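One-letter codes give the sequence; the fold follows as C-alpha cells. An example follows:
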Amino acid sequence: MNQKLYSTLLIFTFLIVSFEDVNAQNGLKGRNNIKASHSFFRYYGFQNSHFFQSEYNRGVTKFLEVGTYLASHPDFYLYEWVNPPPDAPRFVEGSARAFNYGVQSNFHPLQLFLKEGHRFRLDLYINAKVGGRYSPVPNYSLRQKEHYFFYNIGGGLAYHLYKHWGIFIEYSYRSPAKFRYGLSIKF
C-alpha cells in the first residue's frame, strides 16, 4: 500500500513540475520580482505575532536573482523600576517594533534543466540572506544593542497562477518566522 501511495505521489509531483504554461516567463535574466509576505512570529514572549516582509529581486542569470528585503516584526526591551512594589519584579519588559533589512540571492535549480522556449508555472529556489536587524529602544530602557548582524538560509516554492501573479511559501532556517507565505509579482 505504501509503495502505491508513494508511486502515485511521485507521478503527481512530476506532472506538476512538468506542467507547462505559455503565459509564464522563461528564465530569470532581466526579470523583476516583487514579493510581499506574512508569517506568524514565535519569539520569546511573542506568540502568534505578525511578521511582514517585502522584497525586490532582479534576475542576473538564467538561474540566479539578487535583491533586497525589508521586514518588520515585534521585539522587546527591558527597563528597571526605580522603586518597585515589594511583590513586583524589578525588571519589566516592554514591546517595540524591530526591522530586518539586507541583501539576498535566490538560486533556482529548475531553471538549469529548462530548454529555451519551455515555460513553467512551478518554481523551486534556495535563498541566502545577509543583513542587519534594527531594534530601537527608548532611552529609559536598560542598555542593549540596537543593531545586529543577521544572516539566513532557506528555500521556497512558488506557483505562478497567471503571467505576472503567483503565490509562494518559504522556509527559513535561522529566522524566528520559520514559514512565510505571500504573493509574488514578476514583470
User: Anything to note?
Assistant: Confidence is low (pLDDT under 50) at residues 16-25.
